[in-house]
Structure formats: structure tokens, C-alpha cells
Amino acid sequence: MTKQIFLNLPVKDLNKTVDFWTKLGYTFNPQFTSENATCMILGENIFAMLLVEKFFKTFIPNHEIADASKTKEVLIAIDTESRDAVNALVDKAVKAGATEHGEAEDHGWMYARAFLDLDGHGWNIMYADASLLQGQNAAEVSNHAQQA
Amino acid sequence: MATQIYLSLSVKDLNRSIEFFTKLGFTFNAQMTSADATCMIVGENIFVWLLAEKLFQAFAPNQEIADARKTTEVLISIDVESPAAVDEMVAKALNAGATNIGEAEDHDGAYSMPFADLDGHRWNVFYHDEPVVKEQNGAEAANQTQQV
Questions:
Q1: What ipTM describes this predicted complex?
Q2: d(CA B103, CA B106)
Q3: Could A73 and B121 be called an inter-chain contact, meaning their C-beta atoms sit closer than 8 Å?
Q4: If you measure CA to CA, which chain A residue comes closest to B29?
Q5: What CATH number does the domain located at A66-148 have?
Q6: Is-contact A89 A80, C-beta < 8 A?
């Protein structure tokens, strides 16, 4: 089993991006920070490497960087500790320049809101109480979780 | 701090993708599996939703699904328990139809190898000695992290 995950995402302006995520309360590992990249700490074992485009491109020779404002390869969902925390985080994101993406989803056992960051990467911020999951069928669950 | 992460990736053929990742040793949450989606268990708190394109599209309205064979929005780096496990997982992936997109890299205790899955999503499988190498300058560290 994997113990750590690093998502590597291209960003157009690293300073603006660091400023954005700092406003949301995230911190960075200075050991993995340069003018080309920083390592954002999302969770104890969950990290996002934010890379300036020219640096990101060196890892995908012969490939284009997807324009996340127009196309999507990935949607990223992370949890928070409460419904209030979901609201607080997304409100901060919007205030810091993100675009809210879709409506808030409230399914009782799960509450979520989503935003697109400064580069268009899609983030879903969710709070879920798995103890309320019992008895739902798989299709519903998969639908709900996707909307989170 | 997030305690869980769920990535959503679009796949052209869900059954083929399940078969592919099963060959790599991953398992799936049956409760969160339907005709259009499955939840792959990557780590204790790390999950990847594999979504049929029409369902993925529902969560990215007004956007194109990126063709990951041509453009890249994200590189997903996951760790395994040893260098041998890196080789083993990538060998299984290539046997199961993945695309070889680079050679193994070995830098200062970090060993890694990438592959592109059946839909072109790019994975980097890595192992590094704990603790993470210290006392490097930022650029070197960022570089190294990228290569792990």
C-alpha cells in the first residue's frame, strides 16, 4: 500500500499560487521549495507539488500541458474536519481569486463545495461522516462521492 | 489538514481499467463501485475514483475531458516499500498494457519509474529512504522530488 502521494500540478505563477494557498491556510515544505516549485502540505502524507509550467514541461517531454481552464484530466477531493470548515475554506478560496464550481452538495452523510483554483485545477472540499453511509446503494454512493 | 484524498480520473473502459489496476495489485471498494465508477484503494487514506467518461463529464460541465495521451494536467507520484517494488509495479503495468514513458531514476536514496496507464494518465512510482534527504538547496530538492 502506498503511504504517500504527491500530486504534481503546473501553475502559471508560483508566487501568486503560493499566496493563494497560504490564504486558505496551507503551508509549504521549504526544503522542497525553489523558484520553480514548492511542496504544499495538504495532509500528513498528502502533498501537492506546484510547478511552474516550464519546469512541469521537463517531466512531460513530447506532451502538452493541459490548459486546466478548458480541459480536465483530474478532479481532486480532500476532506476537512466539519461542514463549517468546508464553507470557510471555499469562501476563503473565492475571496482569494478562485471560482466556485457548481453548487454546494448536501447529502446528509456528506457535504461538499468545489472551486477552480487560479490555474483552473478543480478542488472539491468535503466533509463526510462515514457512519451515516450504511444502507445506501453503491450507485448512489458513487454518485454522491463524485459530487463531493 | 486533509485526512483523505480522492482523485477522480476519467477512463474510456472501466472494466479494462479495473483489470489493469488489479494486475498491479490494487483493490477496490465494492460498496463504491457501480457501472460507471469504482473507488480504487491506493493507500489507507488515498483513493482514486475511476470514472467512465460520461460520469466524469458530469462533474466537469462546460469543460472538455483532457485527452491524457496528448496533454497532461497532473502527474501522480505514489510511494511503495522498496526499489524492488517500484520495478515490480512498473513491470506489471507494462505487461498489462501501460506505456513506458521514461527510465528508472536513482538519486540520493530516491528511486522511481514512471508509466502511463491505459488512458494516458501518468503515474510515478517511487521509493525513498526515510528521512527525506536534507540540506540540499531548494532547486536540487525540487528537482529530486520531481524525479522520485
A1: 0.88
A2: 10
A3: yes
A4: A138
A5: 3.10.180.10
A6: yes
